[in-house]
Amino acid sequence: MGVVEEAEILARAYGVDVREARLAGLLHDWDKAYDDEEIRERVRELGLRVNPWILEHQPRLLHGPTAAAALGREYPAIPAGILQAIERHTTGEIDMTPLDMVLYCADALEPNRRFGRVDELRAQIGRVTLEELYVAVLGYWTILIIEQGKTLHPRTVDIWNAYAVKNEKPYINAKRKERK
């Protein structure tokens, strides 16, 4: 329930529909319990078109898209915006909506997360724009993944670059420069 609570905090701070944020937070990991092979089967069963490299090397990242597709079929009354946020919560995207960013950040910053800069990132809620928070969280996770020697989702660099160009200087780098 930590993601639900964090989604509500973020939604209130950034003027996003609280009910939608809470529902997205509640449902976002609908398919997370599936192991790699079960996720691959789920992708086939749902007829999803996904990057073959991801299917082979990072199938767990597909629990967002599979959950969104399955929930949309089983519960057609769930609003499309909630399903999109669920789909995007594992990797982010270039054209994130406020609800997408709320769920992405809530998943990364929920109270049970206890990694390096999580408290610093949480402290920025309401002090920076939602987009700045999203870019900071994306940047932090990207650095963490690289430091662990893991593979990045192929779109991660494109997403980062799109926001870096848009903002000239991504927020996370600006904060690091201030601390030096």
Write structural notes for this entry.
The protein is mostly helical. The chain has a single domain (2-179), classed as Hypothetical protein af1432 (Orthogonal Bundle). It has helices spanning 2-14, 18-27, 36-46, 52-57, 63-74, 80-88, 98-109, 118-122, 130-147, 154-167, 171-179. α2 (18-27) packs across α6, α3 packs across α5 (63-74) and α7 crosses α9. It is globular. This is bis(5'-nucleosyl)-tetraphosphatase (symmetrical). Keywords: Hydrolase, Iron, Metal-binding, Nucleotide-binding. GO terms for molecular function: bis(5'-nucleosyl)-tetraphosphatase (symmetrical) activity; metal ion binding; nucleotide binding. Its EC number is 3.6.1.41. Residues 2-111 form the HD domain.
* CATH class category name: Mainly Alpha
CA(first)-CA(last) distance: 37 Å
Order of helices and strands: HHHHHHHHHHH
The CATH topology annotation reads as: Hypothetical protein af1432
